[in-house]
Specification:
By secondary structure, the protein is α+β, with helices and mostly antiparallel strands. It is built from five helices and twelve strands. The protein has helices at about 55-70, 85-105, 160-165, 170-190, 220-240; strands at about 5-10, 10-15, 20, 30, 35-40, 45-50, 115-125, 130-135, 140, 150-155, 195-205, 210-215.
Amino acid sequence: MTYCVALRVEAGLVMLSDTRTNAGLDNIGMFRKTFTYEKPGERAIALLCSGNLSITQEVKAKVSRAIKDSVEDPDVETILNCSSLHRVAHLVGEAMKEVQVEMRSGMVAGDVSLHASILVCGQRRGGKPRLYMIYSEGNFIEATADTPFFQIGEHKYGKPILDRMIRPTTSLSDAAKALCVSMDSTLRSNLSVGMPLDLSIIPRDEYRFSLRRRIEADDPEFSKISREWGAVLKQGFDSLPSMID
């Protein structure tokens, strides 16, 4: 399992993912879940992946293969040359659908889950920041002002802080802080989510990544956020009124 979260605010897009995969109690691995694509000054795109690793890796391979093929054949449509971020979501969804069909045809008798989800985040010149969630079937939905963030994987532990804190006017700095608290809550409550983490930021109308940071287990800033958030919760709890006279 994993935990990936991305949010869209007026100032841009912020994404955070862990790197743990779990195929059983004694089969723990580490794989990057965030993949970034950039044409500075023109567009910046991130894919965050959760679910069956063979599915998401093959989807990423199809996306990357198209980009490579477009060097020799400019008529090949890719996420780096298509007309809109909405079309990017279509291309990723189409790749997901193709991979699901290919995988299912060879695994009919098995009981392996082929569930997978991908978050597509980005902005191209002439468009606004967009955030989509791609489902296993290849269909997708888009984030809105009412639903400014998407989570995939082990999302339940990290959702309350986002519900309380994220608003359209939230700054990128506060948004990144909220995602770190959300991830910290998930790390503490679920062993199938683990360090290191990948944090990425796309500021509005800059068409580039201002930050692509790997957060290791001993990262001083993340450790301070975790420690001080725990202290604030304890202080807040102690200040609550008693329910017993």
